[in-house]
Amino acid sequence: MAVKPLARDFGLVLSVVVLLSLMSLISCSSRSFSAQESGVFAEVVGATECLDCDEKNIKHENAFKGLQIAIKCKVINKLQEPYYVTKATSELNPKGEFIVQLPDDVIGHLDDLTTQCFAQLHDASNTPCPHQSPSNIILLQSKLNSNKLTYSTSTSKLPFSSSTCSSVFLLHKFFHHHHMYKMPNPSPYPTPVYEPKPNPSPPPSPVYKPTPYPSSPPSPVYKPTPNPSPPSSPVYNKPTYVPKYPPVYKKPLPPIPEYHPHPKYQIPPSHEWPPMPPFPKYHAHPKFQLPPSPPFSSHHPHHPYFPPSKEVALPSP
To answer: Region (Disordered) spans which residues (predicted)?
Structure first.
């Protein structure tokens, strides 16, 4: 039984949230429509300042080149968490000044901003420069006329450092290429001498001759048309009869054979053999000579020859 009151309370809370969101959307749309209908447009005017350009001997116009100023406004999401969204961007001029035109949905009925906005400086790679916080809040500065609103930041100038917020000029590597040869200034061109134009003489007055009137043509001489004579009567001749004979067919003769003489036999040319290579020169091998025998020594005695002994038959027992 306790579940039904909780479900009713949840449905009631959900309906209230939906109604509040619809009312906020209707109010925002009415504000933007009123700003567009009235033709009021607003712009943010300000300037920046380089802190270390004089110490590093960097020209201010080179430090400002490529830097952008972004106007970010506070938006609340569905979870009631605030975050900032970029509404407009613009580049800096060579003097470090900027003029950013705000969209119509930021301007309210009383020429105030509908939400909190601030100006943030971006480097040449479109990343926010460090040490830039929402402290540079945009405030209404002046109202020149009924159709233009001018806003400015709370601080006079937005400071930045060239080491942390690099421009297009500082992104390149120094001394990466050799110095280019500086061409001398060209000599001034000689002053051209223009001759006065000759005054044209007036054209001669034309001599008008009277146009000759054409003489009247001679009166034509009409000859009487001759009366045509009647045509002569035609003469018809009887055609001669030519008899038709049946054709006589003859048996055709056989074709005469064509005589083709045999070609004469020709002995093929003899083959020319290449010359024989030269015979190798015979070199006689040296005769093999035995080494000399060692000298005879007397300590080897000469053994006499003993012939084998004859077998003696043993006496029978």
So the answer is: 192-236, 284-317
